Amino acid sequence: MFNRKAQLEKLKATAQFDIIVIGGGASGLGIAVDASSRGFKVALFESHDFAKGTSSRSTKLVHGGVRYLAQGNIKLVTEALRERGLLQKNANHLFKRQAFLIPSYTQLNKYFYGIGLIVYDLLSLRKSIGGSRIISAKKAISRIVNLKKHKLKGGVTYFDGQFDDARLALNLAQTACESGAIILNHFKVTDMLKDDEGNLTGIAVTNTETDEIIKVKSKVVINATGVFSNKILKLAGRKKKSLKIVPSQGIHLVLNKSFLDGETALMVPKTSDGRVLFAIPWHNKVVVGTTDTPIKKPSYEPKPLQEEIDFILENASEYLIKKPNRKDVLSVFSGLRPLVAPEGDKSNTKEISRGHKIIHSESGLLTIVGGKWTTYREMSEDVVNEAIITHNLPNVKSKTRVLPIHGNLNGTDRKDLDKNLWFYGSDATALEQLINSEDSYREQIHPNYQFNTGQVIWAARYEMARTVEDVLARRIRLLFLDAQAAMECAETVAGILQKELGKSDSWKLNQIEEFKNLAQGYLI
Fold this sequence. Notes:
This protein has helices at residues 4-12, 26-37, 66-70, 74-90, 107-123, 137-143, 165-178, 229-235, 306-317, 376-390, 428-436, 453-462, 468-475, 478-481, 483-488, 490-501, 505-520; strands at residues 17-22, 42-46, 61-62, 96-104, 133-135, 154-162, 182-185, 187-194, 200-207, 213-223, 245-256, 265-268, 277-282, 285-289, 293-294, 331-340, 356-360, 366-370, 444-446, 449-452. With 524 residues, the protein is of the alpha+beta class. It contains 17 helices and 20 strands. It has three domains: 4-54 and 166-244 and 353-390, FAD/NAD(P)-binding domain; 57-162 and 246-350, D-Amino Acid Oxidase, Chain A, domain 2; 414-520, Helicase, Ruva Protein, domain 3 (Orthogonal Bundle), CATH 1.10.8.
């Protein structure tokens, strides 16, 4: 049962696990799903909330990576396109087939990108979700009405995948739980347990709500903490020089849907700094990004740099008739990519591979770094395979290629769901019943958005939401869609959670203050 109390009781009743996973982002949750579905005893601990860090701050794409194709990284593109097809099948409630347009202002570019995307289609093999087309200027404008028409020669259309990252993370946590894993958020790893020879035998975790410390034994410990991997490596007593992780910051701006005016996404393959720029419809808004800025010290709430904001606005304005300004930004969010630095120059992060790497420590700790959401399943399979080899676990094959993820609709058409509840997938019907069970549950938490009291209650009862931030940032995404609106309903959400979780008045006041301080960082 995906319930904190039940999970905690199960944790205390288990003498030893096969695998402990540290980190509740894409990699960690994917590992928990893979390992538990093979029959291993698994426990996962996340110090904050599922997908609190990088894994809730992506560009919301499940894609092969057109830029990687341009770099000649055929292997990464092929793997990612295969994984895109598997995610489309196994999490069909969250996967959306998204049309993209690459506008061309020279005839040469139109055919250059057109040929490149034909190759992209071919690499997807039988898992293609739609072919690319070279189109005229007239057709390009019909796809994106706000597209600049001056000197437009046409464009190229293609299809890729889109999803909701934080919701997928939550569904992976639920899937792992259904496979027998113990999954706990707001549990921080504070120490490593070792035998007399210095080999890891488990960890000590602190329940951050109660400060209770619990010692948990395990045959294998896996570090999946992304940009914070060196902290766990240090805690484990790594003797060799710590892994050189280069955190690269990518920011996204959220605008009103009118700036794109249509369902087709804009893709600019090469901006002034050589990166790709996307403007993508998402939850009735437009997400525009991203940047690639080296950051020295990682944090859970990375701050967007003013030059990054200006860069995105300026580049978007080069292609859109309706030019976005700072006052138009409803929310700005930043994520840090855990890139593994190659030898030599580490300053140009956009040239560092997005492939993943598994690191072995002297203590037996396994660390996974790099990668991206699209390839999370393959990464997870690789890590569990490595754990089997290096720690002599039973050689059970991975099942995740055909394993449905919690929420998968199994043949039901997403159009049959309530238009405001589609992202709950197979849970939508039960949630709708809850919402309709009491008049007060149908009340909106903000007048401008359809999110209601019932969804907050559902998040607390069935989705392990423990804070106002958990609800507004990752269960219903309002902080990412409209930071000001999220601040305005913080008190309402805190009141609902106080009642559901049995908290005090002082807890409620602290939650309101903490969330409003946090949300300020999402405003320009």
